[in-house]
Write a structure and sequence with these properties.
Keywords: Glycosyltransferase, Membrane, Transferase, Transmembrane, Transmembrane helix. The protein has about 650 residues and is an alpha/beta fold. About 30% of the residues lie in helices and about 20% in strands.
Length: about 650
């Protein structure tokens, strides 16, 4: 026996009861009335919006979904909530109730109904199985929401799925400003999946187009007419033709539709038949979307991994997550481990607290037990200090890009890695992951890291494995025999992240690199005997380091040269001769007293100079990425059932 529970509350009465007032106060605009010698300014209110949400088995996303929904910078007394939930096997209803208990009074009205019985429908094979009964239920509920918005004279209805995170608080207001009949904010996933189509086949399914990636990658920015939007869709109900919009097949023009029983397709075709254009807007980064699970995939497995991916993207972009205090109790801490390694170190300058804070959030999301390893700060070094430490420089070394000697930042970077190698030997640590603090983790990082390590240990014969780097060789790097995840490393820059064995650390130390110093990302290729400069390599005898690389890579930089927010603590610091790197040598009159915080892409000619921080530009790079099989490609859209609600 099941029961249907209804929760209704209102901060100001039903919309229908305030119909005349709603019509009079439709928009937040200033109107000036001239009466005799007086001018009176009147302020009109913003449009009313009903937000429609369907919830099923979303306990893992709801704390973040509701937090970001609450963060929307739109008057809550102009918003109504319409929420339905059933057939849950988790705490979705409990979480929804907890959030509504605190926030209901803020909104104009709340209509929350749910079925209290637990478990999937009898006709469903699994909770991710979409059969005709399930489609019919979703169609009925969405049609009910559309009708409810019409009955309360709402100006707009905003359909949004419970695993969407609107990280841009201005989303709703910005969409309304577009004054479009149907518009969706373009959402970002952990792959090529999004909430719009650019093409539809004659039998009403997804069709690939060249425009899709252009819009998704922000190569073209604006609002674009498309045949399909879903998952987060704003509909203007003040346009007369929207009365013909429907989710029900029976309401379509007779004889025109012979497609599947599918809510988003029927809705798109009803818009098409009514002459109402649909748009996707990518003028801003509005938020993020989860890729729907296919039949057989599970929430504890694939969906939790996807949630981690998306939350990691948000941390990369914003530095933190929005999670209301009363909802945080529904988010479990992720158990931490060292990925079966002896230890994990993160190199971080003590003064770079913002990077450290961001990385700690990533470690919490990924469940990584990482030790903060204080970096040697180039700002604290001087020529005398470097000399007193016994450091001498490689004869004839000059930076390949700038034709300059090493910077203090590069010296500090090398010493930071060197100190970890020394600690490994001292503590007899067999395998260590070394991370820098300006990295972003690729989707499914843990699963892929385990795969790389399992292959490496099974095959054996390696000293170092790059998790992140910048490849400099244009020829294809050879796959390691018997591995699906590893290639033999070629000449590379960057030390974003790498796993090194105890024997590898000993090899790097035995060459006494402090007596012939050069940057660490030049030293490593020399030591695995894949460096183009023979005069440099001739100073190092035992070049037997066996270096492999994950393919595709597991780590990338958070920023590249010229990106907003890009800061280099190595390239843009003082040289060992006390001058700042610049095109053609130091400028006349330069004091050499500059900050390590110099940003790339600044004023003058120097911003055009090639740098190590430039994005990798290899013709074979896309091919390696496409061979992964783990990421979410555009082709996935053709087989995805695109479902993410009930």
């Amino acid at each position: 026996m099941c029961s249907i529970v209804s929760v209704r509350c209102s901060s100001g009465g039903a919309f229908a009861g305030l119909a005349m007032m709603t019509m009079m106060l439709a928009l937040l605009l200033t109107t000036t009335i001239v009466s005799g010698d007086n001018q009176i300014e009147l302020t009109e209110q913003l449009p009313t919006v009903m937000v429609a949400v369907l919830v099923r088995n979303k306990a893992h996303t709801l704390p973040y979904f509701f937090s970001y929904l609450e963060d929307l910078d739109y008057p809550k007394d102009r918003m109504s909530l319409w929420i339905r939930s059933d057939h849950n096997e988790d705490r979705s209803i409990e979480i929804t109730k907890a959030w509504l208990k605190r926030t209901s009074s803020l909104y104009h009205s709340v209509d929350f109904k749910y079925r209290s019985e637990r478990g999937k429908r009898e006709s469903e094979k699994t909770s991710t199985h979409w059969n005709e009964e399930r489609f019919s239920d979703v169609i009925r509920l969405k049609q009910d929401a559309l009708q409810a918005a019409r009955m309360m004279w709402a100006d707009y209805i905003f359909f949004i799925d419970a695993d969407v995170f609107l990280t841009n608080s201005n989303t709703l207001g910005k969409l309304i400003e577009r004054k479009l009949p149907i518009v969706a904010p373009m959402l970002v996933s952990d792959g090529l999946y999004s909430n719009f189509w650019c093409g539809m086949t004659s039998d009403y399914y997804y069709q690939r187009t060249d425009d899709y990636k252009k819009i998704l990658n922000y190569d073209q920015i604006g609002q674009w007419p498309v045949p399909m939007v879903h998952t987060a869709v704003l509909v203007s109900l003040n346009i007369a033709q929207t009365r013909q919009l429907t989710f029900e097949r029976k309401n379509l023009p007779v004889g025109r539709y012979d497609g599947p029983v599918d809510d988003i397709i029927i809705f798109a075709m009803s818009a098409n038949y009514s002459g109402i254009p649909m748009y996707v807007c990518n003028e801003l980064l509005y938020g993020y979307i989860m890729v729907p699970l296919e039949a057989g995939e599970t929430v504890p497995g694939k969906d939790l991994e996807q949630l981690t991916n998306v939350l990691s993207y948000i941390v990369n972009e914003y530095g933190a997550l929005s999670l209301k205090q009363d909802l945080s109790r529904f988010v479990a801490d992720v158990p931490k481990d060292k990925l079966t390694l002896s230890h994990i170190y993160m190199i971080n300058l003590e003064r770079r607290t913002e990077r450290r804070t961001k990385m700690l959030k990533h470690f919490d999301l990924l469940g990584l037990d990482v030790e903060h390893f204080p970096a040697v700060d180039g700002k604290q070094l001087s020529d005398k200090k470097v000399y007193d430490m016994g450091i001498r420089f490689l004869p004839g070394y000059a930076d390949p890009f700038h034709k300059r000697p090493m910077t203090m930042g590069e010296i500090g970077c090398f010493l930071s890695h060197y100190n970890i190698w020394e600690r490994m030997v001292r503590l007899n640590q067999q395998e260590v992951l070394v991370l820098e603090d300006d990295i972003r983790f690729e989707p499914f990082f843990r699963r892929r890291a385990y795969g790389v390590l399992a292959d490496a240990r099974r095959i054996d014969g390696w000293d170092l494995i790059y998790f992140g780097r910048k490849r400099l060789q244009e020829e294809d790097e050879k796959w390691i025999d018997g591995s699906e995840y590893l290639v033999k490393a070629g000449y590379s820059y960057w030390t974003l992240g790498y796993v090194i064995t105890l024997e590898g650390a000993k090899k790097l130390l035995r060459e006494q690199p402090l007596s012939k110093l050069l940057p660490v990302d030049e030293y490593l290729p020399i030591m695995f005997d894949n460096h183009p400069n023979d005069s440099w390599t001739s100073h190092f005898r035992d070049r037997t380091l066996s270096a492999w690389s994950a393919a595709p890579l597991l780590l990338y930089p958070t920023h590249y040269t010229g990106d907003e927010g890009y800061i280099s603590d190595t390239e843009d610091s003082l040289r060992i001769d006390g001058t700042l790197p610049a095109v053609g040598g130091p400028s006349k009159g330069s004091s050499g007293m500059v900050s390590n915080d110099t940003r790339d892409g600044g004023q003058g000619q120097a911003s055009q100079e090639p740098k190590k921080g430039d994005k990798e530009q290899l013709p074979n790079a896309p091919a390696l990425l496409s061979e992964s099989g783990i990421g979410q490609g555009e082709h996935d859209l053709e087989t995805k059932n695109r479902r993410s609600e009930l």
